[in-house]
Amino acid sequence: MTVQDQAEVVPASPTIATIADEVGVSVTTVSKVLNGRADVAPDTRARVEASLERHSYRRRTRRAAESTGRIDLVFHEYDSAWSMEIIQGVEAVTAPAGLDMVLSQLGGRHHPPQQWLDALLARRPLGVLFVLCSPTQAQQHQLRRQGISFVVVDTDSATTASVPTVGSNNWNGGLLATRHLLELGHRRIAIISGPEDVLCARTRLSGFRFAHEEGDIPVDPTFVRHGSFYVGAGYEQGMALLDRPDRPTAIFASSDMQALGVLRAARRLGLDVPGDVSIIGYDNLPVTAWTDPALTTVNQPLRDMAGTAARMVLDLARGDDLSLSRVDLVTTLVVRESTAPPRH
């Protein structure tokens, strides 16, 4: 086979017409898929996407005028206190750069629906920050073909090195919280983790288990609970744990919002904190310094995480290479008034 024949079989530089001819659609349809237009049938879109991927199609140039001076910040779900820390961290980077920020949320989903992504592609932002959610592999290809950079903050599942991610050392955070309670003398420690399908929740639980293992202290399986990271889950699981005759002497809530729910449950049951039960949270939200008692917690540098991710997405938008594709910031223990040695 000659070089010319090879070029005819596998085009060195595929065009939109190449894709259209292979799939059996018009050039206009391929263009609509590339531009994130919603008026393409799902089956047709899937076939076009598959062809684009087979040919490793990439836009060769992208004029600056095509993109807007905006960064999209998308949460899996809004939570006022936790989300506000992320928003302020991103705003500290985007405001000085003269960029706008567009907020959205996915209603609890951890991957964007295609309709949401189509609308985003039509807006053509400079970049996207995904918080506790991430694009699917096919959606990653779509974003890259459009030249839209993206970074994931505290991802819900393990990402490859090709997906820039900023998080914190969740395993160490779970270890620090549990070691603190064990060092106080607690041996009946419960944990209210986050959703089982969220990596940061599973990692904090792993740190909790390791702290017990290194002390050769068994974990009561009935003391391992899962919540949603929100106050209601903390209250519900806190009531279930504390309203039993063999209640735990300490509870590690793997988010501050869940810890607030546990505090309310303890009050409802007439229990003293930390006299009857010690409570420790996770995140170090500003409100935790003002609870009664002030909450012991693990400091997760949310604003720094968000700011780091925002700087990464801007670097990518400028065409710069990242020195690291995965950044994990340090977690530290903040001891306040809600933890103490058990009474008996």
Can you summarize this structure?
The protein is an alpha/beta fold. It contains twelve helices and twelve strands.
Provide the CATH architecture of the largest domain.
3-Layer(aba) Sandwich
CATH superfamily caption of the largest domain:
Response regulator
Rg is 24 Å
Q: According to CATH, what is the topology of the largest domain?
A: Rossmann fold
Number of strands: 12
The separation of the N and C termini measures 84 Å
Shape: elongated
User: Which segments are poorly predicted (pLDDT under 50) over 5 or more consecutive residues?
Assistant: 1-11, 60-66
Q: Can you give the helix content as a percent range?
A: 40-55%
Q: What is the CATH C level class of the largest domain, in words?
A: Alpha Beta
- Please describe the biggest sheet, giving its number of strands, its sense, and whether it closes into a barrel: 6 strands, parallel
Helices, strands, pairings?
Blueprint lengths: L2 H7 L6 H8 L3 H8 L7 H13 L15 E6 L4 H15 L5 E6 L8 H10 L3 E5 L5 H9 L3 E5 L11 E4 L1 H14 L5 E5 L5 H16 L9 E3 L4 H12 L7 E4 L2 H13 L9 E6 L12 E4 L2 H16 L8 E4 L2 E3 L10
List the keywords:
344 residues, alpha/beta, disordered N terminus, 3 domains, 16% strand, Rossmann fold, single chain, 41% helix, elongated, 12 strands, six-stranded mixed beta sheet
